[in-house]
Amino acid sequence: MSFKFRGPNASSGMGVTDHGKNAFLELKRKKVHRYVIFKIDEKKKEVVVEKTGSPAETFNDFTASLPENDCRYAVYDFDFVTSKNCQKSKIFFVHWLVSHLLVHIFICVIATIV
């Protein structure tokens, strides 16, 4: 999986903080986190880490951490066992989007991932 961090020249003009980049790399390489939830800091115009989940947390813990009335980005490290009894792991990118948001917030969120 390739995860490219856009700088200030991204479509929305938003970049990802160094802490956000490091949190993702820790999840990917070191398995320090089960998930990382990101949010847009509108004042600083950048994507920041809102929460990280420990490796012991479950998918239910992850979904309970997502807000009911706001957008978020997240990465989730899913562990599973194949039919041949091999331990595997896949990282999923989650775009949590609430449909009743104001249009300008919705456009900002969409532009950040494009």
TrEMBL record:
Alphabetical UniProt keywords: Actin-binding, Membrane, Transmembrane, Transmembrane helix
PANTHER family: COFILIN-RELATED
Domain ADF-H: 11-114
Protein name: Actin-depolymerizing factor-like
Family per similarity comment: Belongs to the actin-binding proteins ADF family.
Organism whose genome encodes this protein: Solanum pennellii (Tomato)
The keyword NAD appears for this protein: no
UniProt cross-references to InterPro entries, sorted A to Z: ADF-H (IPR002108), ADF-H/Gelsolin-like_dom_sf (IPR029006), ADF/Cofilin (IPR017904)
Pfam families noted in UniProt: Cofilin_ADF
Regions that span the bilayer: 92-113
Superkingdom per UniProt: Eukaryota
